[in-house]
Prior knowledge:
The chain is an alpha+beta fold. The protein contains 3 helices and 13 strands.
Amino acid sequence: MRGVQYEPLPIEGLRFGYVDSGYESVMMIESEAPMRALNSSMWGEGFTASRRLINRQVSKHYLAEDPLKEMQAYFEGQGTPWEGSAALLTAAELKDRGYRYVELGLGGGVCAWVTAGLGNKIRGGKDCEDAALYPGTINTIVVVDGDMTDAAFVNAVITVTEAKTAALQDLDVRLEDCGLTATGTSTDAVIIASLQRGERHRYAGISTRLGYAISRTVYEATVESAARYLNRQLSAKE
C-alpha cells in the first residue's frame, strides 16, 4: 500500500503499517504467511485466508452505491491485492486507535487494535426508531499467534463483544435520550485472525488463557481509543 510506514510487531512474521492522511488514513496488519480470518464486514467476509487486515478511514459523508466495487477500486489504486485482504471501514480517527499485546505462553500471543467512534451509541435490546440507526463504528481487529478451531473463532467474537461493552460501561458512555449505558455503536465490526500455528485452542471464552488474553487486550485498547475520542469531543466544545 502506497506510503505505508511499517514497524515490527511482537508476533513473529507480523508487521503493522500506517498512513496518516486525515480522513483518508489507513492502517494495516500484514503477515508473511496467510492467516485464517473471520470478518464480520463485507470486504473479505466470513472465513478467509488473509495476509492483510486493513482498517480504512473515510469521510463521515462517505456514501458508495456499491461499497464492494468502491473498496476494490481503492485497493487497486493503492497497488494492494484484493485477494488475501480483509478490510473494515470507519469514520473514526485512526490516529486515536488503541493497541495492546499480551503473551499467551508457549511462544504465542494476542494483539488487538480498536478504533472507537461514539457518534451513534446504542444499547442492545433497547427500542429505537429506524431513523436512529445511522452509521457509528467501533472496529476491532484481533490477531492470535496460535491454532484456533472454528468454535474458538466464534467464541472469540463473543469475548471481544463482552470486553468492548465492559469498556464502555467503565467509561460511563451513556445514551443521551435515556441515560442508560451503551453496549456499542450501530455499525460495530470485528476481525479475528489466527496464524494457525503452535498451541491448539478449542475455546476462547474468558475462562481460557486465550479468552482472557483477548478480553484484556480488547478491553484496554477500547478504553484507550474511546477515551481519546471523548477527550477530542470535550476539547471541541471548549
